[in-house]
Design a protein that fits this description.
This protein is α+β, with helices and mostly antiparallel strands and 227 residues long. Helices cover 48% and strands 12% of the residues. It has a single domain, classed as Glutaredoxin (3-Layer(aba) Sandwich). The chain is built from 8 helices and 7 strands. About 14% of the residues have low confidence.
Length: 227
């Protein structure tokens, strides 16, 4: 998993007495947002891209950042197995959500993590889950270094030309005007509320899965199916 960087790593702590030490510890605890949530996490999944049958009994929620190399590995190595064994058979459905944080973590001059997420959401607005999935795979195939800006709006428009049935002028307007920025921000808030530690962050029926390996995700689906 590609993880969030802590907010307090560069803080110089000068401990003067017990009171100041206690205050600093309290501030550090408040800043931590990467611990697993206790119990089951509830998500608002209305209007989200879905792979599999809508009425499948088990729901897999996956938060991704298009700049995340581990997300690319999940898509290329784990998802095909999960899709074959669980999504295509009607045992589970997979809901894709955005958690764009890497560009911010690396303090890049352009937030191309968010641009990529917005582009995928623009495709979803036009062509639903199928268009979202096509562009998602194209962006992951074109993935560059996480520490460099590569998912520019111009590059994303080029990639979108390979999505079947997409009105390119409408897509360009959507991306240029940040039409889907609010939807991406809403996804990110859900990831933070779920205490996601990074990407890919995977939840099966609201329970976090520690690994994005197909076997681990499959085992979680099997366990959820028995409940």
């Amino acid at each position: 998993m590609t993880r969030l960087q802590g907010n307090n790593q560069n803080r110089t702590v000068l401990v003067i007495g017990t009171l100041i030490a206690a205050v600093l510890i309290a501030l550090a605890l408040l800043a931590v947002r990467g611990r697993p949530a206790a119990g089951t996490v509830s998500f608002d999944l209305e209007g989200q891209p879905v792979l599999g049958q809508a009425d499948a009994p088990v729901t897999v929620v996956v938060f991704e950042d298009f700049k995340c190399p581990n997300c690319k590995r999940f898509e290329e190595e784990s998802l095909p197995q999960i899709r074959e064994q669980y999504l295509d058979t009607g045992k589970a459905k997979l809901v894709s959500m955005n958690f764009p944080f890497l560009a911010e973590n690396f303090r890049l001059p352009v937030d191309d993590s968010k641009f990529a997420a917005q582009a995928a959401e623009c495709a979803y607005l036009q062509g639903g889950s199928a268009a979202y999935e096509q562009l998602k795979q194209l962006i992951f195939r074109a993935q560059g270094p996480e520490s460099e800006v590569w998912a520019t709006k111009a590059r994303l428009k080029d990639l979108a030309q390979n999505v079947e049935g997409l009105d390119q002028a409408q897509f360009a307007t959507c991306l240029d005007t940040d039409q889907t920025a609010a939807a991406v921000d809403a996804d990110e808030r859900q990831a933070i509320n779920a205490r996601a530690t990074g990407t890919p962050a995977i939840y099966v029926n609201g329970q976090p899965v520690a690994s994005y390996d197909a076997r681990a995700v499959g085992a979680a689906i099997d366990a959820a199916s028995q409940n």
